[in-house]
Amino acid sequence: MGLAKAAINLADFGLTGLRSKRAATGALLLEVPGEGGSAIAEQLAARMAEALAGTGIKVARPIKRVEVRISNPDSTDEASRKEVISSLASVGGCPEGDIRVGDIRRAPSGLGTLWVQAPLAAARRIAAASDRRDLVVGWVIVRAEVLATRPLQCYRCLEVGHPSQRCTSAVDRSGRCYRCGGTGHTAAKCEATPSAHYVRTWRG
Fold first, then answer.
1. What confidence tens digit (pLDDT) does each residue in 59-111 have?
2. Rounded to an integer, what distance in angstroms lies between the CA atom of residue 191 and that of residue 47?
3. pTM for the whole thing?
4. Strand locations in 18-107 (E)
């Protein structure tokens, strides 16, 4: 932080101070208070990244995200994924880079589902458009369901309640599928029978 403080004057951003706290991972979180804080935080993060370049310290602009399930996208190819991202970003009022998508999965009925992660404000707009039945991807009206927040899960031991950075377990399950507990595949591509132990935080 010394390098950042030496290179950056908070007064240039109209600030007298920042709120600080520790994230669950141990990272330092700096919050810009007041109206317009989001835009100022974006500029400050960019300046801090420049000041700390080459030090190995990572500067990120955290965004509160939620998970959304999209039902009935009309195809399973990469072009369809790009259509989903473009459509959701447009409806949600956010950059396409803020939308993260998984693989489109097909049920025996032929209907597909797609897991999406989006900023909270964007997810609310997407869900509202779905409720009005005017959420369209390509030629197809799709439905969006905002999912409940998952509990914090460690991807080393696969237990809940702590992140991998603070894991003290002697057991390392990081190479296992956290849906069935098997090896050699990920949960997104798991076709095995779910394990009651591992499946508790999995959402397909």
1. 887 778 899 988 877 655 566 778 888 999 999 998 888 899 887 777 666 67
2. 46
3. 0.59
4. 19-22, 28-31, 65-71, 100-106
**Can you state the percent helix, strand and coil of the chain, rounding each to 5?**
30, 20, 50
b/e burial code for range 90-129 (CB count within 10 A of at least 16 → b): ebbebeeebbebbebeeeeeeebbbbbbbbeebbebbbeb
**CB proximity list for 51: less than 8 A, separation 6 or greater:** 3, 4, 6, 7, 8
* E strand spans, 18-124: 19-22, 28-31, 65-71, 100-106, 112-119
pLDDT per position as a tens digit, 170-189:
888 877 777 777 788 777 67
- CA 1 from chain centre, in angstroms, equals 26
Percentage with pLDDT > 70 across the chain: 86
Query: Element (H or E) spanning 5, and its range?
Result: helix 2-7
SS3 112: strand
The CA distance from 72 to 56, in Å, is: 43
pLDDT at 127 > cutoff 90: yes
Write the CA distances from 54 to 43, 46, 48, 51, 57, integer angstroms. 19, 14, 12, 9, 8
Between the alpha carbon of residue 57 and those of residues 5, 25, 28, the distances in Å are 14, 15, 11
